[in-house]
Amino acid sequence: MRKRDYLSQLELMVLLAVMSSGRDAYGVLVSRNIAEKSGREVALASVYATLERLERKGFVKSALGEPTAERGGKARTYFTATATGIQEAREAHATLLRLSADLPALKGGAA
Questions:
Q1: Over the stretch 4-14, which tens digit does the pLDDT of each residue have?
Q2: Does 79 reside within a domain?
Q3: Which residues, at least 6 apart from 5, have a Cβ–Cβ distance to it below 8 Å?
Q4: In a 3-state reduction of DSSP, which class is residue 3?
Q5: What radius of gyration do the chain's Cα atoms show?
Q6: Dihedral sign from CA coordinates of 61, 36, 40, 71
């Protein structure tokens, strides 16, 4: 049986940010998306390393855009979630919901 690749918290945040960015997901936008929605700053180098890891796992795929003058002739790398990545995000979401169901501390009650 193949060892399953579970998502770390950062991997899940990056994957969700890619999914919410649509076809325009690139490193800086993913980092901004995470900061805006979570209130947590994530180093850009960590985002790129995580995107590479997610691509190796088959959860995202990358494609080069067109070179632009504003980037000195460099092309931006865009990321999209794969069907496998979307399924993994669904499973992680469902797991978190099951684990957190009926926890009084999360509903304002005693720990």
A1: 778 999 999 99
A2: yes
A3: 57, 88
A4: coil
A5: 16
A6: positive
Query: Residue 58 and residue 18: Cα distance in Å, rounded?
Result: 14
The separation between the first and the last C-alpha atoms of the chain, rounded to the nearest angstrom, is: 38
> Total domain count for the chain?
1
**Does 110 reside within a domain?**
no
The CATH number for 25's domain is 1.10.10.10
Spatial distance between the Cα atoms of 72 and 106, rounded to a whole number of angstroms: 49
Could you write out the DSSP letters of every residue in 47-88?
Answer: HHHHHHHHHHHTSEEEEEEEE-GGGTTPEEEEEEE-HHHHHH
Residue-wise pLDDT for 21-66, tens only, equals 888 899 999 999 999 999 999 999 999 999 999 999 999 999 998 8
Which residue range is the domain that position 79 belongs to?
9-103
